[in-house]
Structure formats: C-alpha cells, structure tokens
C-alpha cells in the first residue's frame, strides 16, 4: 500500500460555480471534440511534444470558458477539528496521533506519544474507507460505461466529484481536509515541462496529461448529452480543474483493499492514514478482513513530536514524480528507463530481429531499467546492446550457435558523457517548488547514468 506526499494547498468549502451560458457550453463542447481528436490520433505517438502543445492550447481555451477561479477557499488546517471528530464518531482508532504542519510537507501525521516499532498507530473502519462500494451509489447509473467499468481509478475520481458536490454527503469532513491542488504533472505549465526535455520521464508525463485530457473531454460530452443522476449532478460543475483535482487525489492517495465479498481487490482512499508522508522502510499496513479495518503499525520507533512516516512501496523517482508529485533523495528503488530499438531501416534488421527472437525478446523495441545499484545493467539489456552493435558475420555466427545464452554475459559498451555539475549548482539557487522537484529528478537520473558508465568502464 502507498500514497502521496502532502503539499501546500487550501481546501475548497461550499463553492458553487457560476452557471455557464448556453453559448459558452456549446463552445466548450466544440473544444472537447477537438481534444478527443488530438488525444486519440495515432499519428501523434511519435510527436508527443507537439501533441502536448496543441492539447494545452485547447485546454487554455476551455479554462477561460469555464472561468476556473476557486472561490471561498480556506486553509486545510481549519478542517482538522471537524475531520477528527468525524473519525471518532465512526469508530476510528488514532489514539496518540494528530495532524500537524511540518516544514517541506505541509500537513502530516504527528506522534503525540512514544511509539515503538510494530506498535499500532491507526485503525480505520471499512465503513469510512472511500471506495465505489461505500460512496457515491449514484455511480450505478454509469455501470455500463466503458471507462467506469474498466478503469477503477477513473470510477473512483468520478465518485469523489459526486460526493463533493451533492448535498449532505457524509464524506464532507474528509473531503474538506483534502488538498485542492497538487504538484502532479497535471498542474505543471509548458515551461515546467520543458525542463524535463532529455529525461525519459517526459514521455510518461506527456502521455499522462494526454490521457486525462481525453477522459475530461469524454465525460464532459457524456454529462451534457445524457440524463441520469450523475449527469444531472455534475453537468453544471464538471470542469477540467475539477477533474484534475479528482484524478490527482486518486493518483496520490489510492490503495488496494479487498472488496466486501472478498472476491476481488478494489481501489480506495483511507482517511487519516493518507495523511502520512513517505519514508523508505518496511510496509507495515494491512487490511484486517476479520475486523474490517485498515491497520497501520509503526515501521520504526517514533518519539513524541516526531512526524510519522509510512512506506508507499517500491517505486522509481520517475513514478513518484508523475503520479505522486514528489521526488525522494537516495531512493534505493530508483531507476532510469532507457528505450532501445532496432530500426526497420537498419540493413541488418532481419538478422538482428531473428537473433532477438531466439533469445526470447518479444519486440525489437524494449524499455530497460538502469538500476541505482552496483550492477545497473541487466543481462537482458547486455544481450540487446550486443546484438544492436553486431556486424553481419557476428549475427550469422550467433544465429547458428547453440550457446546463444552466452550473449547475456558478454561485455558491452556505451559511448556517452553525463554532466551533472550544472544541475547540482542550480539546486542551491532560489526557484519554485516545481522547478526544484524537476531538478532533483534530473539529478537522480544522471546519477544512475553516471554509475552505469562507471560500471561499463570497469
């Protein structure tokens, strides 16, 4: 189980968007139609940056039409007392913990007493764990929709919007303590994204933005062209900003728990537990099916006044950056995704493809993970690189050889230079939190590349 890092933000309280004129609605639908085409055109698979710029231009028009100004905001800290009261009324056990502000994290979980490793920290009842089973029964009206059916994260995002905007939702104390914006790539500007050029994370970030733009345009058209309880509720309030908030909330906080009947695992949000920030170490949270509670135990000793951390799971900094909106230093699970391929225009493409197939490679284009370890290159990557650089005589030899697996153990070489001094110097200058996060990501990626080159030189 794992989730997100808190970031400075405000909570939205009782905001009612202005009703859009029919002219603006029609124009937004026209723009949504453009978005669907831009986000679905297969020709853009090799032109992701150009595609991103076109999508961003359309979204800027949409934002202006939707007049996406947040009104009536207040600090999340204002909602803490009501949230804790709600937890207590619903049988949650959080004795010895509280919510507090921490430098660099904004809100986090604070130890009110000494905890030893494996002590029980939190016990959250299943009835207040937010999922499509416990919240938003109105979502049943869309049960046959393909996105709702096959994309549980999307279904959970729509469920959040339903509960956020319907009257008298029992989830209001929880929703009010959630951030109203995040540091995910959905909130980054074009200038922020430019800083990712040269990083393999850029492709993942651009694809994610495109997917969310497509989903937004799809649901906007769905809610405006259909009559059902969900469409009636969300039609007037559904904006790109609202959808980014819901998606980012799910991305940064979602977890997997057993369904009520125990037949499958479902996506869910766990109140109070999701206030914990990330730290490496053992995963000490589990779902107790007998008591129907999410039980969280101390991963290490925590003293009175300490911030309580949990481990979000094994993820690279690239994954944390795109989906959770933060980067960690000295991440032992970090890696650099490197895509390698055999060009169809290569005169030896046929021989190289045949040899790759004999070695069990499923494609002539592969993504390898350079690991932040003493031996960063896998046997599979070594074999791919060797085949990539072979002459015809070598290819013919190995195609006929009965010792083909030896290719995985042969030396390979890369000719490149990694410069990281510039980024390290920039890190000491004043910059926005987003730019600093991008810089930290670049530094971590270059560190892996540098270690890889040192390993090859040896």
TrEMBL record:
Residues 1-10 have a biased composition (Basic residues). GO terms for biological process: methylation. Its EC number is 2.1.1.85. It holds the Pfam family Rubis-subs-bind. It is found in: Cytoplasm. Keywords: Actin-binding, Cytoplasm, Methyltransferase, S-adenosyl-L-methionine, Transferase. Residues 1-22 are annotated as: Disordered. Residues 95-313 form the SET domain. The keyword S-adenosyl-L-methionine applies. InterPro entries: Rubisco_LSMT_subst-bd, Rubisco_LSMT_subst-bd_sf, SET_dom, SET_dom_sf, SETD3, SETD3_SET, SETD3_SETD6_MTase. One of its GO terms (cellular component) is cytoplasm. Coiled coil: none annotated. It catalyses: L-histidyl-[protein] + S-adenosyl-L-methionine = N(tele)-methyl-L-histidyl-[protein] + S-adenosyl-L-homocysteine + H(+). It comes from the Eukaryota. PANTHER family: ACTIN-HISTIDINE N-METHYLTRANSFERASE (PTHR13271:SF47), UNCHARACTERIZED PUTATIVE METHYLTRANSFERASE (PTHR13271). Belongs to the class V-like SAM-binding methyltransferase superfamily. SETD3 actin-histidine methyltransferase family. This is protein-histidine N-methyltransferase. It comes from Cotesia congregata.
């Amino acid at each position: 189980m794992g989730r997100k890092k808190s970031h400075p933000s405000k909570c939205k309280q009782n905001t009612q968007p202005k009703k859009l004129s029919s002219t603006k609605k029609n124009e937004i639908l026209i723009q949504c139609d453009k978005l669907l085409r831009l986000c679905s055109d297969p020709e853009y698979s090799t032109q992701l940056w150009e595609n991103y710029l076109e999508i961003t231009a359309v979204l800027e028009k949409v934002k202006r039409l939707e007049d996406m100004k947040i009104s009536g905001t207040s600090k999340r800290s204002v909602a803490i007392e009501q949230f804790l009261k709600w937890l207590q009324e619903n049988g949650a056990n959080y004795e010895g913990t509280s919510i507090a502000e921490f430098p660099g994290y904004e809100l986090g979980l604070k130890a009110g007493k000494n905890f030893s490793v494996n002590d029980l920290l939190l016990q959250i009842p299943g009835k207040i764990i937010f999922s499509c089973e416990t919240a938003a029964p109105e979502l049943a009206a869309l049960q046959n929709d393909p996105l709702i059916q096959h994309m549980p994260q999307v279904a959970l995002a729509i469920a959040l919007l339903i509960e956020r905007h319907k009257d008298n939702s029992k989830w209001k104390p929880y929703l009010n303590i959630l951030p109203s914006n995040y540091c995910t790539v959905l909130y980054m500007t074009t200038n922020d994204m430019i800083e990712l050029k040269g990083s393999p994370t850029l492709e993942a970030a651009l694809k994610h933005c495109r997917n969310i733009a497509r989903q937004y345009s799809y649901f906007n058209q769905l809610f405006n062209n259909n009559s059902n309880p969900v469409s009636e509720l969300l039609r007037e309030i559904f904006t790109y900003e609202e959808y980014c908030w819901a998606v980012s909330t799910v991305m940064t906080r979602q977890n997997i728990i057993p369904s009520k009947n125990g037949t499958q695992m479902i996506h869910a949000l766990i109140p109070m537990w999701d206030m914990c920030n990330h730290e490496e170490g053992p995963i000490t949270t589990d779902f107790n099916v007998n008591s129907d509670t999410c039980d969280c135990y101390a991963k290490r000793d925590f003293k009175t006044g300490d911030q309580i951390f949990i481990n979000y799971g094994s993820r690279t900094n690239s994954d944390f950056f795109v989906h959770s909106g933060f980067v960690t230093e000295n991440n032992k699970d970090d890696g650099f995704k490197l895509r390698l391929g055999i060009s169809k225009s290569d005169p030896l493409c046929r021989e190289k493809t045949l040899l790759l197939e004999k070695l069990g490679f499923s494609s002539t284009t592969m993504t390898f993970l350079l690991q932040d370890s003493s031996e960063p290159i896998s046997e599979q990557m070594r074999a791919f690189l060797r085949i990539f650089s072979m002459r015809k005589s070598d290819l013919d030899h190995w195609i006929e050889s009965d010792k083909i697996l030896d290719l995985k153990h042969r030396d390979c070489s890369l000719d490149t230079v990694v410069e990281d001094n510039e980024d390290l110097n920039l890190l000491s200058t004043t910059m926005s939190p987003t730019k600093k996060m991008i810089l930290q990501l670049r530094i971590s990626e270059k560190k892996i590349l540098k270690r890889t080159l040192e390993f090859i030189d040896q």
